[in-house]
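User: My collaborator sent over this chain with a note saying "see what the structure looks like." That's all I know about it. Can you take a look?
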Amino acid sequence: MIRYLALLVLLFASLYATAQEALLPVRIMATPKATAQRFMGTDAFGWEYVVADNEFRKVKDDKAYKYRNVALGDITRADLQNPLQIVLFYKKFNTVVLLDNQLNETGVVNFNETTPPLMADAVGLASQNRLWVYDVTTQQTGLFDLKKNSYRTLTPPSNSGLTWYQNDYNYFYWTDASGAFYTLNLFGSVTSGGTLPGFNNAQLIAANTMLLQQGNTLVQYNLATRKATPVSIVEKSFTAFYYKEGILSIFTNSEIIQYKLSLPRE
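Assistant: Without extra context I'll predict from the sequence alone. Here is the result:
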């Protein structure tokens, strides 16, 4: 009897330890995809943003807004942090388009025509009506003022390039060719965050927490402790993910699946 109880204790301890090693999200809903799409993200109001047939779309239930600009080629990236000022980056044509919440065009910036001209490789929305811009020509990151049509560099030149980037109003984050992670603030101060493990895609979701897609595996990575914790999702294969305000969206070839994911405190 004592031996049996001891085995039970070991079993429960093992299960508890396993649960602590994996984040277990709660599945909310799945939305079938009508056409081939590229998932761009979601917002706090439940809208999903996708690209289909090179058309930028904002969809929710039976409502949809659409924006297309054939002359600018493929959409490289969409910055969705402000649903009232969406930034679309068309890298091939070195151009940014600004959209309002109904996807009406409110502005266009052709970096070939700015002073000085820029060759943008990374663009995102910053505070006070400015854009973060990484310029390939000078290999520097700076701020482009949309009202003044002017650019100010913040970093010294670097030949390490950018392999991934993310931004918010106050910070620009990136990794270079060696996997080193950096943070740049509005005043030009650069902070090193160490070297990240290999990944296909990533999203910084808290001060020291990232979600990393490694093939068909999603992990939470702690920048401070360097610990990687698997996120246990059901999907065996997925093409993209996006996390915002507790909702983890997983994008597969046939549907968008949403989970409620409560991250542990750092």
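A starting point for your reply to your collaborator: The first strand starts at residue 26 and ends at 32.
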